[in-house]
Specification:
Elements lengths: L8 H27 L5 H42 L3 H16 L12 H55 L1
Length: 169
């Protein structure tokens, strides 16, 4: 004999909601167990983004410091061109060393830090040009002075020679 079970509409709805809740609970639990230790691309991307932002912030801080040193170095070199002094030259060389120290050569460093080394190289080149210009100007002044002394001596000697030749005649 076949026994049929007839459920009322209310019982069917209750069983449906019960099975749906059981399915969602089982799916959620199994998904959690399956994916909790797995690869999470968004988490790693967030880590990379935060690391990138941190490197960006560090570079910007270094860049602000480098620009201040660079600007003061240029101003010092401009002053050195007109009023050379060994103290000012030592300060400029210290600024160049400080810019070179901002360049990081480690493997995990930001490749943009090479700009600090290039800034230091330009300051050094500018300082060398200022030193050579100053030496050239001082040599030219010395030459002008020696030339004036020679002309003055030649004029005196010429007067003596003229005086001596006019008395002989």
């Amino acid at each position: 004999m076949k026994q049929s079970t007839h459920h009322t509409e209310r019982e069917r709805q209750a069983y449906f909601w019960w099975l749906l809740a059981l399915f969602l609970l089982a799916t959620t639990g199994l998904s959690y167990l399956m994916f909790r230790g797995g690869y999470q691309p968004f988490a790693r991307a967030a880590d990379r983004d935060s690391a990138f932002l941190m490197r960006q912030h560090i570079f910007e801080k270094k860049q602000e410091a480098a620009l201040a040193v660079y600007d003061s170095g240029l101003a010092k070199i401009d002053r050195y061109r007109y009023m050379p002094s060994s103290v000012l030259e030592a300060e400029i060389k210290a600024d160049i060393r400080q810019l070179n120290m901002l360049y990081d050569i480690s493997a995990r460093s930001d490749p943009r830090t090479i700009c600090f080394q290039q800034m230091a190289a330009f300051l050094e080149m500018y300082l060398t040009d200022a030193i050579h210009l100053r030496k050239s100007l001082s040599n030219a002044e010395l030459f002008q002075q020696q030339l004036a002394d020679c002309r003055m001596g030649l004029d005196r000697r010429g007067e003596q020679i003229r005086a001596a030749t006019s008395t002989r005649q």
